[in-house]
């Protein structure tokens, strides 16, 4: 994605709709400076703005990302590619979800079992419990993030 090209495309589509930066900003609930930064290519719109921006400008998201108007056939081809990429991404996330469950399990084993087997003194016991809890906690954080990402790809 080329930010400058996308910004120029947003500007062109806005002008074709007869909107000022201030009007587009008001419709999206952002400042006109934000619109200016998008149009100059300094920043990209947040993902949450893609759909409303495209609705206002009467374009499809694929057109926004490719920074050009497309024929119906091109839209279909790019839409199918996007859908395929979503399925691949969801499959990869589900694989990571399984690995995260294993990570949580390993963290629990470290915390409970290895503490009893390896720790000879209080310091070693605390160190083993902390390491196990870290692995376990890290796995839980990943699990939450992966499940959230999976729900967004549905």
From TrEMBL:
Ranges where the HTH cro/C1-type domain occurs: 10-64
Keyword rRNA processing annotated: no
Alphabetical list of Gene3D superfamilies matching this protein: lambda repressor-like DNA-binding domains (1.10.260.40)
Pfam family, one: HTH_3
Transmembrane segments: 96-119, 125-142
Keywords attached to this entry: DNA-binding, Membrane, Transmembrane, Transmembrane helix
Protein name per its UniProtKB record: Helix-turn-helix transcriptional regulator
Upper lineage: Bacteria, Bacillati, Bacillota, Clostridia, Eubacteriales
């Amino acid at each position: 994605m080329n930010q400058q090209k996308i910004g120029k495309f947003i500007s062109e589509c806005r002008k074709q709709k007869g909107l000022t930066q201030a009007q587009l900003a008001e419709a999206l609930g952002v400042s006109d400076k934000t619109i200016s930064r998008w149009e100059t290519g300094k920043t990209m719109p947040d993902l949450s703005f893609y759909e409303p921006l495209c609705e206002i400008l009467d374009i499809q998201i694929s057109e926004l990302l490719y920074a050009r108007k497309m024929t119906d056939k091109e839209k279909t081809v790019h839409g199918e590619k996007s859908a395929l990429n979503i399925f691949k991404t969801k499959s990869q996330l589900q694989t990571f979800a399984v690995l995260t469950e294993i990570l949580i399990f390993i963290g629990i084993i470290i915390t409970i079992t290895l503490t009893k087997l390896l720790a000879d003194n209080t310091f070693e016991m605390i160190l083993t419990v902390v390491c196990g809890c870290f692995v376990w906690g890290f796995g839980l954080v990943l699990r939450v993030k992966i499940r959230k990402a999976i729900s967004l790809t549905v």
